[in-house]
Amino acid sequence: MTRSKNSAKKLNFRAMLAEQEDFLRTLVQQMVQQVLEAEMEQAIGAEKGEGTPTRLGYRSGSYSRTLLTRVGKLELRVPQDREGRFRTEVFERYQRSENSTGGSAG
Q1: How confident is residue 104, by pLDDT bands cut at 50, 70 and 90?
Q2: For residue 5, is pLDDT > 60?
Q3: Which of 12, 18, 48 has the alpha carbon at shortest distance from 33?
Q4: Does the predicted model carry a pTM greater than 0.90?
């Protein structure tokens, strides 16, 4: 009987870890998405839908991008500008994972 109780505890622990991982992944994804939006606002000199005399460009939708990170796969929407000049500093062009060099930091 003790053995089945231990198995039940392990299953609950695994479920908690899975929920926490999803929470962290969602949180990181939202933060990265906000950074991308802030970079675009800075690049064109205006918020989404805002008209200003100092505006440097216009948005042109976004494209989907998957980025592999330590907390899992992030599905991002990368904003675009009409002239195609906007480049994010969050990740390099064509980078698909958090560590594109494949090396370790320690």
Answers
A1: very low
A2: no
A3: 48
A4: no
Q: Which two tokens stand for residue 99?
A: 């560590």
Residue 12 lies in a domain: yes
Q: How many domains does the chain have?
A: 1
Q: What angle do CA 71, 77, 83 make, to 5 degrees?
A: 140
DSSP 62: E
CA distance 91 to 23: 22
CA-wise closest residue to 67 among 39, 41, 35 = 35
Residue 2 has pLDDT above 90, yes or no: no
Range of the domain at 15: 2-81
Q: Token digits for 39? A: 């970079």
CB 47 within 8 A of CB 79: no
Q: Which residue has the tokens 């330590």?
A: 70
Q: Give the amino acid at 16.
A: M
Amino acid at 1: M
The answer to whether position 95 is within a domain reads no
**Is residue 75 in a domain?**
yes
Question: Greatest CA span in the chain, whole angstroms?
Answer: 74
